[in-house]
Amino acid sequence: MSKPERLRFTIFDDLVLLREVLHQNPYEKHERWKEIREIVVNVTEKAFTVRAVKDHVEYLFALLAKDDRANLRKSATEEQSDEKEQLLLQIREMSRGFKTKNVPKFKHNEVQQSVLAEVDIKKENESTNSSDGEGTQQNVSTLLEQRRAVKRPCGQPLKNPSLQFLREKQQSERSIRLRELQLEEKKLALEERKIALQEAQMKLEEKKFQMEKNYQEQKLKMEIEERKRGIESQKQNYTLINALLHMVQEKQDLH
C-alpha cells in the first residue's frame, strides 16, 4: 500500500508563506488563512492544507523562541535566513495584539474537510492496484489540481499578492539603498572638502610662520650689523682720541 508523500516546507516555501502572512495578517481575520493557503499552494505548487500552513508558522515561532538557529537557517543562504528571521519577528510582533483577544480556532468543518480530502487521496492511491489505473490516476490528479487551484475572475490573469509584495519590497529596498549611497557620497564629498580646507589652512599657517621667521631672522641680522657698526665706530673714535692725546703729549715733551 503506497502512502501519500509528505509535503515538506523548503526555505522558498517558508519565505513565500511568511511574506503572505505578514501581508494579509490572518490574526486579525482568521478567514485569511484560506487565502494565504491558496497563494502558497499556487506559488509552490504543493498541496498544503490550511492546517499545515498555520501549524508550520507556529512551528517556526517555536524555533525562534528556542533560538534554534540551526533549524531556522537549514538549507538557506545568509540573506534568506536573515529575511526569514526578520519576517518571523515582524509577524510575531504583529500577532501579539490579536492573540491576547479571543482568537477563534479552526472551525470543525474546515478541519474535517481537510482530513477527508487527504483520506480521499489515500483511497485513490490504494485503489490503483484493483481498479482501472488510468481513471483512478485521473481522479487523484483532479483532486490535486483542485487543491492547487486559486480562485480568479474568468478571463483575468492570475495575480500573486505575495510576489507583488516581494517586488514592491525589493524596489523599496533598492530605493532606500540608493538614497543611502547618495547620502554617503555627499558625506564623503564634505569630508574631502573639510580635509582640503584643513590642508589649505595648514599651508597658510606654515607660510605665515615662514614669513614671520624670515622677518625675525632678517631683523636680527640687521640688529647685529648695526651693533657691529657701532662697535667699529667706537673703536675708530677710541683710536683717534689716543692718537690726538699722543700728539699732545709729544708737543708738551718738546717744550
UniProtKB/TrEMBL annotation:
Keyword annotations from UniProtKB, A to Z: Coiled coil
Keyword Coiled coil: yes
Originating organism: Tribolium castaneum (Red flour beetle)
Keyword Coiled coil included in the entry's annotation: yes
PANTHER family xref list: HTH CENPB-TYPE DOMAIN-CONTAINING PROTEIN
Protein name: Uncharacterized protein
Coiled coil stretches, renumbered: 180-228
